[in-house]
Model the fold of this input.
Amino acid sequence: MELSVAAAVVIGNEVLNAQVPDENGAYLIQRLREQGIRLRSLSIVPDEVDAIIDAVVRARRGARWVITSGGIGPTHDDVTVRAVALALGRRVVRLPEMLSLLEEHYPDVRTPEALRLTEAPEGTQLLFQEGSWYPVLACDGVFLLPGVPQLFRRQLETVLKTLPLRAVFQRALYLGRSEAEIAAALDKVALQTPGVGIGSYPQFGPGVDHRVRVTVEGPEQRAVDEAVARLERELPAGAVLRVD
Done:
């Protein structure tokens, strides 16, 4: 398993039913990229315990960190805490610190439903952030975040502060040939430079001045530059229109 790899699980019937668009997945992809952390997978599952367990277990097989979105409130369909605990083989417990926070912010609310906000998988660490009384729940590399986009984004920044920051270097080649014409060169260079990622993206539509954009990215500038130089040598003559 790569060290700097994350996976995400977006939880919510409302997303799958098209009642609410998924903003959190797209935002998470962008922020992880800026952090230099590769996102291995992103699943969207309903508010069902078994579905969440399955998604979290699969995500943990290939990722060091798992970030969930949604299902941590006090209503009947908020089952993420229980599902994550089961996926981790842990009990659900009431955290005294969370109970104190609930009593401080909602002193007149002691319903069984409200008390669900004090529950977490056993062994959970609380990550606090300025401007919010409810902390991020973190357990065994799984971070439980809310589904409301404004809250998700705020808590995601708290999570990212605990993760490594890595540089990502990228360059692009703009080509005047089709993918079929350049595939052999891409295959060859990809095998020669396993430390970088090479992507190929055909371009269509009016006003486009190239047929394919090839991206080369990796954690080391020298390796990226070397892969670009190899591509320039291996691609058909005249295929490269420009390089950024």
About this structure: The longest helix spans residues 49-62. The mean pLDDT is 94.
